[in-house]
Structure formats: C-alpha cells, structure tokens
Design goal:
This protein is of the alpha/beta class and 143 residues long. It has a domain at 29-36 and 53-59 and 74-91 and 102-143: Rossmann fold (3-Layer(aba) Sandwich). Helices cover 37% and strands 16% of the residues. It contains 6 helices and 5 strands; from the N terminus they run αβαββαβααβα. β1 (13-18), α2 and β2 (45-46) form a beta-alpha-beta unit. The chain binds iron/sulfur cluster. Residues 21-22, 24-25, 59-60, 87-89, 94, 125-126 line the site of iron/sulfur cluster.
C-alpha cells in the first residue's frame, strides 16, 4: 500500500484559504458544514490550522498579494497534501484572466514550489456543495 493510501485511510481534514474570492465560493463551503449537507458525517472536518490539515480548499483568484500566503500555507501543510481549486477563479482565473494583478491559476502557483503537488479541480461559479463532496470522494479514490 502506498504512503498516500495509508495516509488517507483516515478522515480527511481540510483548511480553507481565500485568495481574493468574491465570497460566493466561500458561502458554498459554509453550506457544506450546515446540517443539510453535513460533511462531518463523512469525516471531512474543517480545521483552523494548515498544520492539522490533509487538504487545502482554495477559493478565488490568486493575485500578487495572496500568492506568497498561499505558498506559505501550502508548505505548512503536512505531506501528502491535496489542494482543491474551488471555482472558475481558482481553476483558470475566471473573469480575472489577463488582469494586471493575476498570478493564478492555482495549479500553476502550486507547481512552482512543488511540481508534483496534487491539485483537484472543482468547477463552477460557484461550485455547488454537491460538486465539492463529489470532488473529495473522487480525489480519495484516485489517490
Ligand atoms: S468562481 Fe465565481 S463565485 Fe467563486 S470566487 Fe470566482 S467569481 Fe466568485
């Protein structure tokens, strides 16, 4: 059994980092924690520190200000780690593509510091909570 499979046998804990989103993606993440979607029943837990997390939920478009913070938080997350690029802004920089301050997409920023970093895309603007649950389950199966 690979190191990754062993590590993710347990519940996945996530840390949320907002890289200048419009906040709609973040509200959808909050929905995940409500009794309606209740992701804690799958063991998915939102934690207050990247040092306790297995995965990062990243929302918004990475810009010049947020890029160093994202890299710092990524490097603080223990290996093996997964990054969920949440929404069009994170996946492709969305409506900010070509902007003077745009440093994304998220996978490009992560791969600058860790070429083998795992980035999972959650499409939508904003993605629905069901899409997030689906992405986490698929990512765990793929790992
Ligand atoms: S993907 Fe859409 S909803 Fe999410 S932060 Fe970007 S503009 Fe807002």
């Amino acid at each position: 059994m690979s190191l990754k499979m062993k590590a993710f046998k347990k519940s996945i804990w996530v840390y949320h980092i907002a890289c200048s989103p419009c906040n709609n993606c973040d509200i959808e993440i909050l929905d995940l924690l409500t009794p309606r979607f209740d992701v804690e029943r799958f063991g998915i837990l939102l934690v207050g520190s990247p040092r306790h997390a297995d995965a990062l939920l990243v929302t918004g478009m990475v810009n010049r200000l947020t890029k160093p913070r994202l890299i710092e938080v990524y490097l603080q997350t223990p290996k093996p780690r997964v990054v969920f690029a949440f929404g069009s802004c994170g996946i492709s920089t969305g409506i900010f593509a070509g902007g003077y301050n745009t440093e994304g997409p998220i996978d490009k920023v992560i791969h600058e510091v860790d070429p083998e970093g795992i980035v999972v895309y959650v499409p939508g603007c904003p993605p629905k909570p069901e899409a997030m649950i689906d992405a986490i389950v698929k990512a765990l199966k793929a790992l």
